[in-house]
Amino acid sequence: MTPLANLYDLFGPFYEPVFMKRAAWALLLLTVATSASGVIVVNRRMAFFPDAVGHSIFAGVALALILQTNIQLTVLALGLIIGLTIIFLVGRSHLAHDTVIGLVFSGAVALGLALVSRQPQATAGLSRFFLGDVLTVGDVQVLALMALAVISFLFLWAFTNKLTLNSIIRPISLKPDLSEYLFGAYLALVVVVSVQAVGVLLVTALLVAPAATGRVMAASFKGMFWASIISGILAGQIGLWASFQPEINTTTGATVVIVNVLFFALAVGYRRIVPVKG
Amino acid sequence: MAQALIRIDGLSVTLGQYPVLQKVTAQIPHLSQTVIIGPNGAGKSTLVQTILGQWPYKGSIVFDMPSPRFGYVPQRLDFDRHKPLTVKEFLAMPLTKSPLWAGISKGVKRKVLEGLERVKAQDLFDKPLGTLSGGETQRVLLAAALLSSPNILILDEPATGVDVYGEQLLCEILEDFKKDYTIVMVSHDLPTARAHSDWVICLNRVVVAQGPPQDIFKTNILAATFGLHQSSVDIKDAEQPTNQPTNQASNQATKQAINQPTNQPTNQPTNQANR
Q1: For strand B182-186 and strand B152-156, is the pairing parallel, antiparallel, or unpaired?
Q2: For residue A140, is it within any domain?
């Protein structure tokens, strides 16, 4: 029995064996955090921010091996630096988010490749970050995801209004305020944790797809937020379940993303038939 | 002139290498509508933004009240119009600590509705912000400014992109507000400025003239400041020498204005303001 056995049992007969229950909890906690944060990411047109931070993970792993430091902490630290650099440059260079993110993205990938070329054994540790695997998460990671969900709730409680208002009335030429830097750091944290479950290639989808679905469905911010969370959670659980059906039998992370994209397509189709009121 | 609420003395603002405002001396009277007019690039928006504290300056800005609170209505709302956000959500955000996704309390909804009623826009309460017309957006922005409990309302060219009906409605609303707020409005719409202002500051990096509209709109300085655009305002009764071509008069007046670094007001000396 693991300390979290009672929690896992809440899923009852739906998932067996226990690693499935663990994966279900991990995906539930993760999709709540990413779908909620994604609303601000999509509304601020920062869809490639997760990619830029995600790709810095290669450099982080290589750096940890070169410096003989803890891989998780080094990856997190570099992710935070990349996230904060994007926010800083957007405010100082008077360039749009997409330009700055594209630039930092390339820089992060180049740094990763350069470091890996110096430290070839780093490639061995990279596959986990590249593809991710939600089925191998342990109790510690489930606890970490619980902490992430709590941090997300607190951050979004405190900063949703400020960040939304800034994106409407605050000209891009003004220097970023504290809330924007905190958002950069928070989002980097969400990305680094998400990468462990779905990998660098798919991390953007978890942050962007549910929020995009919510945005298509809703006419209000509140509507978009809850539609995003519901679609993110459903896609996560359906993806996990589907990936285990013998007839489907696909990688869980990729299946979750495919279900998210299908939900988005359904939302677009629905709105073509039933337009948003207003 | 009513008692001066804001006294601006020798105000200079340089943005980058460019001197936008040069030794501006002007007054803004209490509980009335002051309109700042001038051609494009005259520094009108910079002047109001400096009053709001957004730019560093030389000179002084003195308020005749202990804690001035500003309500600012920008020229336009430059945002992603497809963003799902209703008018009530937009107006509620600064009023509540709980996030929009947790819902808006009845008390805050009531305040938002009161704000909208004051600008005759209560029917916009549930509308998505991105679907509003120019005039509706300006009234919602005015409601947002009112909800911040200001005593000074600053509007930067509120009639830009607004149709005639919307502009007239906005002017009527502002007319009602004069008893409660000191209103400062940037405009290059001279007929509106003439019809609805109590005090006019004519700016072209320096103060070319300031005074009540009936005086300002009779001077050839105005024609000089606006150059060829003078036809946009009815200045038939302007005191121009009839035997002198307008452009020549304009040039002379402009030179005269620019050569007046201390910007003595043409119609009414600044120091005659009743305090």
Answers
A1: parallel
A2: yes
